[in-house]
């Protein structure tokens, strides 16, 4: 892909659906992201330079871009460090996860020196930063978007990748689901990140780490949050298992089957309302091409 950061969609108004998520007003910012072959564009040129450029506000726009690029780098470093610590705690090579974020998706033989946040031009990590706004909702967007006294803004789900690093500023509204304990509020802590475990870390660890079930409820005011989804490369095998206590088994050796993260992810996110329109057509085309 020509640019490393692609703004897929400036501002979307989506409505809560039973299987979908999110209220109105979602800005999606993709770092490297979904390969263009999966998006409804004819060529990569259509994805070039989609950064906001407002006449008379050139400096602010440049600053906005520079800040977000810096933020993506910083979150990538935090994600890498957390996975290194996870590997160390599991008694495996601290860099064990590294090739899964590289362009070849887990093949150590050609991995070179690409880290999760290093050379991202070659199809490495498809981490995503999203800037979210949930307008205050006194009434649910649809009858299904309530739970007792709560108005739901984003339905119960787990995130797909390894880790989600989330800034929620001073806003409440995020809840995590714990078996036997129901929904627990995550108190907002300015200057702190919430780290949620995603499906991949859950799978890779054979369930020793559990993907965090969470949802967002209306907090009585417009709410902003910024999740960074720390995701492996499109080609990473999803059937990899961390060889707890065996520092010599590489990611590739411990993969059992052929399903890649990208294809697994497409299958999952097509359940969400906001992706249905932008991905469905292309997905069908891809499946044909891939066969
Ligand atoms: O807005 C939040 O605090 C959480 C957002 C979320 O769970 C998601 O985008 O997957
Ligand atoms: Fe989430």
UniProtKB/TrEMBL annotation:
GO molecular function per UniProt: metal ion binding; oxidoreductase activity
Q: Where is the Fe2OG dioxygenase domain?
A: 125-232
Cross-referenced Pfam families:
2OG-FeII_Oxy (PF03171)
Name the keywords, alphabetized. Answer: Iron, Metal-binding, Oxidoreductase
Q: What InterPro entries does this protein map onto?
A: IPNS-like_FE2OG_OXY, IPNS-like_sf, Iron_ascorbate_oxido_reductase, Oxoglu/Fe-dep_dioxygenase_dom
What Gene3D superfamilies does its record include? B-lactam Antibiotic, Isopenicillin N Synthase, Chain
Record family assignment: Belongs to the iron/ascorbate-dependent oxidoreductase family.
Q: Which PANTHER family match?
A: 2-OXOGLUTARATE (2OG) AND FE(II)-DEPENDENT OXYGENASE SUPERFAMILY PROTEIN-RELATED
Q: This protein is called what?
A: Fe2OG dioxygenase domain-containing protein
Organism (species): Darwinula stevensoni
């Amino acid at each position: 892909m020509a640019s490393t950061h692609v703004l897929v969609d400036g501002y979307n108004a989506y409505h809560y659906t039973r299987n979908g998520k999110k209220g109105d007003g979602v800005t999606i910012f993709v770092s490297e992201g979904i390969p263009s072959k999966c998006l409804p564009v004819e060529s990569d040129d259509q994805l070039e330079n989609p950064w906001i450029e407002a006449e008379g506000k050139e400096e602010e726009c440049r600053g906005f871009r520079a800040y977000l690029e810096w933020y993506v780098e910083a979150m990538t470093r935090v994600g890498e460090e957390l996975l290194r610590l996870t590997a160390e705690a599991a008694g495996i090579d601290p860099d064990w996860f590294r090739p899964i974020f590289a362009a070849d998706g887990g093949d150590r033989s050609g991995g070179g020196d690409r880290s999760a946040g290093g050379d991202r031009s070659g199809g490495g990590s498809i981490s995503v930063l999203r800037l979210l706004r949930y307008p205050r909702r006194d009434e649910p967007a649809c009858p299904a978007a309530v739970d007792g006294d709560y108005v739901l803004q984003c339905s119960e789900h787990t995130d797909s990748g390894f880790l989600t690093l989330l800034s929620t500023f001073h806003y409440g509204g995020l809840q995590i689901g714990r078996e036997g304990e129901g929904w627990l509020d995550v108190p907002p802590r300015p200057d702190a990140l919430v780290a949620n475990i995603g499906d991949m870390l859950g799978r890779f660890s054979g369930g020793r780490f559990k993907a965090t079930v969470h949802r967002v409820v209306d907090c009585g005011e417009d709410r902003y949050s910024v999740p960074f989804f720390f995701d492996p490369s499109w080609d990473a095998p999803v059937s990899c298992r961390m060889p707890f206590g065996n520092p010599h088994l590489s990611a590739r050796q411990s993969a059992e089957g052929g399903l890649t993260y990208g294809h697994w992810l497409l299958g999952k996110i097509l359940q969400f309302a906001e992706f249905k329109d932008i991905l469905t057509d292309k997905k069908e085309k891809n499946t044909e091409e891939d066969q």
